[in-house]
Amino acid sequence: MQSATLLKRSINALSKQSLIIATGKRSFQSSAILRSDALSRHIDTDDNNDHTPFDFTEENMKKVDTIISKYPPKYRQSAMIPLLDLAQRQNGGWISLKAMDKVAEIIGVAPMVAYEVASFYTMFNRTKIGKNFVQVCTTTPCMLRGSTDILNACKHHLNINVGETTKDEKFTLVEVECLGACVNAPMICINDDYYEDLTPETMKNLLTQIEKSEPTKVGPQNHRKAAEGPQGKTTLLEAPTGPICREDL
Ligand code: FES
């Protein structure tokens, strides 16, 4: 090899090495920066500030009493999550500052404790969401079964990105970790319902049905029954002795 070429290669290698030392970055490998879709800190808005009223309805107040009665009196703070969930449901799928304050007041803890819980668990939405909260699972089993295509189908059909709400406030789209239905991957959750064994086509049909307020089929979107394998039921063939949780299984 010509000595001029060797010299040029050595200078290039040294320049790259100096760049790594100077910037502290490795130039040959990088990973994507992952950010949560959820907002973990409070920002005052017109519909969510210290003056936005919140109180449980009379009917929900009875539920509050029922929930609290499940815990020993000195552990009423254990009712935090079910009460936050109740407040979120009453508030249209998201939990406001004053709703968290109300829960904290009822169970006798500092408001900050309720803020911490509501910010930590992804089941709580700290900002307003659309009527249909579309959560697409993109964890490994779902990803291997095509969740990227499902997510893209949602983005394309709704014309929004992850973390956004449609202009008509009918849909909010988020990406979530495993929702525990991996056997029927890929799957999504809309509000309280799971839709499984999806394809981009069935995904789009499902969104269209919801847009038209038509009834949807919850669970597997193919011919699978519950979580049975493709060959059908192979074990536990005799009639169950009970307790029976679902009559249709
Ligand atoms: S990985 Fe999607 S439900 Fe478990």
Automatic annotation (TrEMBL):
<feature type="binding site">
    <location>
        <position position="137"/>
    </location>
    <ligand>
        <name>[2Fe-2S] cluster</name>
    </ligand>
</feature>
<keyword id="KW-0408">Iron</keyword>
<dbReference type="InterPro" id="IPR036249">
    <property type="entry name" value="Thioredoxin-like_sf"/>
</dbReference>
<keyword id="KW-0479">Metal-binding</keyword>
<dbReference type="GO" id="GO:0051537">
    <property type="term" value="F:2 iron, 2 sulfur cluster binding"/>
</dbReference>
<dbReference type="Pfam" id="PF01257">
    <property type="entry name" value="2Fe-2S_thioredx"/>
</dbReference>
<dbReference type="GO" id="GO:1902494">
    <property type="term" value="C:catalytic complex"/>
</dbReference>
<dbReference type="GO" id="GO:0008137">
    <property type="term" value="F:NADH dehydrogenase (ubiquinone) activity"/>
</dbReference>
<dbReference type="InterPro" id="IPR002023">
    <property type="entry name" value="NuoE-like"/>
</dbReference>
<dbReference type="GO" id="GO:0098796">
    <property type="term" value="C:membrane protein complex"/>
</dbReference>
<dbReference type="GO" id="GO:0006120">
    <property type="term" value="P:mitochondrial electron transport, NADH to ubiquinone"/>
</dbReference>
<feature type="binding site">
    <location>
        <position position="182"/>
    </location>
    <ligand>
        <name>[2Fe-2S] cluster</name>
    </ligand>
</feature>
<dbReference type="GO" id="GO:0046872">
    <property type="term" value="F:metal ion binding"/>
</dbReference>
<protein>
    <submittedName>
        <fullName>NADH dehydrogenase</fullName>
    </submittedName>
</protein>
<dbReference type="GO" id="GO:0005743">
    <property type="term" value="C:mitochondrial inner membrane"/>
</dbReference>
<feature type="binding site">
    <location>
        <position position="178"/>
    </location>
    <ligand>
        <name>[2Fe-2S] cluster</name>
    </ligand>
</feature>
<dbReference type="InterPro" id="IPR041921">
    <property type="entry name" value="NuoE_N"/>
</dbReference>
<keyword id="KW-0520">NAD</keyword>
<dbReference type="InterPro" id="IPR042128">
    <property type="entry name" value="NuoE_dom"/>
</dbReference>
<keyword id="KW-0001">2Fe-2S</keyword>
<feature type="binding site">
    <location>
        <position position="142"/>
    </location>
    <ligand>
        <name>[2Fe-2S] cluster</name>
    </ligand>
</feature>
<dbReference type="GO" id="GO:0003954">
    <property type="term" value="F:NADH dehydrogenase activity"/>
</dbReference>
<keyword id="KW-0411">Iron-sulfur</keyword>
<keyword id="KW-1278">Translocase</keyword>
<feature type="region of interest" description="Disordered">
    <location>
        <begin position="213"/>
        <end position="249"/>
    </location>
</feature>
<comment type="similarity">
    <text>Belongs to the complex I 24 kDa subunit family.</text>
</comment>
